[in-house]
Amino acid sequence: DAGVTQSPTHLIKTRGQHVTLRCSPISGHKSVSWYQQVLGQGPQFIFQYYEKEERGRGNFPDRFSARQFPNYSSELNVNALLLGDSALYLCASSQASTGIGSPLHFGNGTRLTVT
Amino acid sequence: QQPVQSPQAVILREGEDAVINCSSSKALYSVHWYRQKHGEAPVFLMILLKGGEQKGHDKISASFNEKKQQSSLYLTASQLSYSGTYFCGTGVLPLSFGAGTTVTVRA
Predict the structure, then answer these.
(1) Lowest-confidence region among A1-10, A98-107, B20-29, B40-49
(2) What is the domain partition of chain B in residue ranges?
(3) If one looks up domain B4-106 in CATH, what number appears?
(4) Contact between B92 and A43 using a beta-carbon 8 Å cutoff
């Protein structure tokens, strides 16, 4: 079975621009979570979607938004990019809506560089 | 609230043992452990669900003490392949991850 796939793998954008990152979960997984990972730190939670509904939102500004489609794939959108948005963006899927007993399966991430 | 991991980094020779600790200020229902190699995605190692339960993955095992709100990851007889950054994740989804412990195993 295919794992979690993310696209694109790398992206270079200019301050003020907009970016859309995409994620396809493992087949059968209904939950998708987005994390931001800055070099040297652990993943920071951005959003979780389960069955197309937002289940949680981390401490990120409104410039960050996401959605989940009927096929459970997901998009993360970031508007008005700042230099500080440069990071590895990870998508993770899981079968359940909670982490108890249900591991996260991460994609390889999208490396976003804002110049 | 992010869990706190210690130590930040550890260097081992092949065959040596190490312990990584993860503690939380909140009550824990489960603890996840993941390993991330340089330039790769985090990979799931194990979940601990019950107090005091130990689980294993190869020669990597972990314990979970609900009362102390702590979990420990044990790397036994370390191999070169154990090198990477280990993260604990706590809470129900979404998981909160610690800052990570970088493990370097040398021949």
Answers:
(1) A98-107
(2) 4-106
(3) 2.60.40.10
(4) no
